# Entry
Amino acid sequence: MINKAEEGLNRSFFKQILLIGIPISIQNLAQASVGFIDTAMVAQLGEITLGAVGLSQQINFFLIVAILGLASGGGVLITRYWGANQIDAIRSITAMTTLFSLLVSTVIAIISFMYASPLLFALSSGNRAISEAGAVYLKIISLGFPITAVTISLAIQLRCVNKSQYPMYMSLISLPAAILFNYILIYGKFGFPALGVTGAAIGTLLTRIFELFLTVMFFGSTRNPVWNGSWRSFTAVFQMDTRQYVTNAFLKLALPITAMELLWVIGQSFYKFSYAHLGVDSLAAYTVYENIMNLFNAGFIGLGNTAAILIGQEIGRKQIPQAINLARNFIKTNFLLFIPTGLFLIYISPAIVKLFAMNSTASHYLHIAIIVAGSSLSFKSLNFLLMTGILRSGGDARFIAITTAIAMTLALIATYIMIFIYKQNFYWILAITIIEESLRNIISYKRYHSNRWLKHEDNIPITPIT
# Structure
């Protein structure tokens, strides 16, 4: 009889991936589809408008990554407490995650609204046409930043207690609403005026409000296993004798994870700044490429988050051999899934390029970028799985932050030298990003193989907090 700690890629393992990972992937795919369709609609308005929206979305992306960092720190704790069957602790962590996320998002929203033009002027490398068009978009969508923060925090709690289907339902329901809002307001349908980029921003804001309504509806229902009929139980942490312990445990994970996520998004912003420096064609191609990759990234995001949830729950049960075996099985699954997916992306790349009304130069850049992405997709997905799915679930947040800081710093220095000093082209940025991800892969795999990522005893003692 096979020991559970030595099980391979069997039916039980894939069933867990299907039950948890598929809903997460579909949710991310639905969310990415909103951005993809929005970009396709805005692309009809010209390269300048497309670049303006792309840069504004980068600031929105900064917000989402910051909130995901905080929520993921809480998520590591929630999965462990779910494995240890400590429901009161889960309610407390959920409340704390939501509070911190709301505070951070409000600050980012105020800065984005008040300084929209200067921010976009800097990001566009001094292109006033792009910054002026994007400022209108950014000011409107910034009003929805706090709404997004609450939605993400509540959705992650549901996901971490094996109820990932409900955030998926929310995304699937809001997807047609987002398409309808954008279609009506961008092009002026059904009696509404054609608002162009302003319409795209209003449509995005309306979608965020609708998503929050759906999330709260699913969260505050009997389908949520930690819901007991009252929101008050989620604020118990603020009256508990152990609230200092809860706060310290949360911040010990959340701060390094958030720092890592922000370092990564700063790097992505600098890459976009570099593309903008190369010209409108490069920026437009990268904006479209980014939205296309969000669709394909949904798969490995689902796999990585499933790994984080299942491994975290085993650690919460103190079943460390099972956690290690799960990590090994997820790495095997990564290559089984994403080598074929990358080849498929390369195969359909000509058809993807034809979907967008861009000039020949921008279209060529886009085609090359997609081919490079398809060739390296399985290694990019491995990077996400190792750092976000395995090392993070083990509580190794500090190591992840340091590794990301080193790799990203080297990559950004190389990008600056090649683009701003030696005046190289679009392809050099693509090459540098591949090298940077390869470096992180090597370091994180060695860390995984050492088993030093398991911080189950000193980071988060599994003891009752109520």
